[in-house]
Specification:
The complex is a heterodimer of chains A (238) and B (120). Chain A is mostly helical and 238 residues long. In chain A, 82% of the residues lie in helices and 0% in strands. Chain A folds into two domains: 61 residues, no CATH class; 166 residues, no CATH class. Chain A has 14 helices and no strands. Chain B has 120 residues and is mainly α. Chain B has one domain. In chain B, 84% of the residues lie in helices and 0% in strands. Chain B is built from seven helices and no strands. In chain B, helix 1 packs across helix 2 and helix 1 crosses helix 3. Chain B: It is a multi-pass membrane protein. Chain B: Its main location: membrane.
Amino acid sequence: MSLDWQGAWQALVQHPLFAFGITLGAYQLAVAAYERTRWVFLQPVLVSMLLVIGVLLFCGVDYAAYREGAQILTVFLGPATVALAVPLFLNLKRIRLLFWPVVTTLLVGGVFTTLLGVGLAWLFGTERLMLMTLAPKSVTSPIAMLVSEQIGGMAGLAAVFVLVTGILGAVFGPALLRRCGVRHPAALGMALGLTSHAVGTSRALQEGEECGAFAALGMSLMGVFTAVLLPLSVAMVV
Amino acid sequence: MLLRGLTWLVLFQLLGTTIQALCLPMLPGPIIGLLLLFVYLVWRGEVSAPVQEAAGSLLRYLPLMLVPPAVGVMAYADLIAANFWSIAGALLLSLLVSLAFAGWLMQRLIERQANGGKGA
């Protein structure tokens, strides 16, 4: 009896749960590796991403097919974003005490991070399409995708820049901030959430509840602020 | 418990999406949902146990949900390769500088507020 290896392989790769399965598997491995080593470069999102890309290339599955299968996961990003209201509310008292530091950091820091990113890319000779895709790099991906499309960039690529920024922030952020003498959990969280959105926020949640709450605050304020002001300022300048 | 909380979160997200489609096209649905839930929690003055449980469970798996968008790097490999150094340099430098700046600024402002409170 001859076994139909080809057919079995196709059935495996094309199963609706294939994308979900490899993502879950890669994530388990990545979390186990991170917990065993505690090495900052082994951020679970980064390691899982590399593992999944490896498997997809090996199996000859393209990104469009993977994205469709992985929708079981991505569809929960919406409710998870809504869920950030809970840590925000639970820390309302602490946030209220620091109202002016939060608002000042948001305005000054938010404008600074956006201008610096676009400015450096322009200085390095990046074309306009790329600049508009880079501009919302510090905002959570659903907002960044919408905003970059509105100002003439590419939504999918914007999500990638957002993620790279987030991972960089989660990898280097806490150590860099401590080295700069930033000790207050609110300041750590605010800086992580403001510049590295959801990835920074999930890193900040590991540092503690107060740190996570300020990261969620920084992320949502930066998101709303960018979504409203960036398209307006691009329309005025260009 | 978990499902009841999840129902609330999904309802707020759907409400946000409806409002976005109706009158706020520049704000994504989930962010409107976040703001609405926040206002609702402030109005009620407490978080119900089911919502707190569902939110905690979802947020614990936030990194997992971010993996599929991250895999999107592979779809833009050519474009990224063509501009690799300028993009990588701009992303890394701007992130490190602005992260340190935001943290430093916030820390200074907190300290100033604390000192001002004592002095007065």
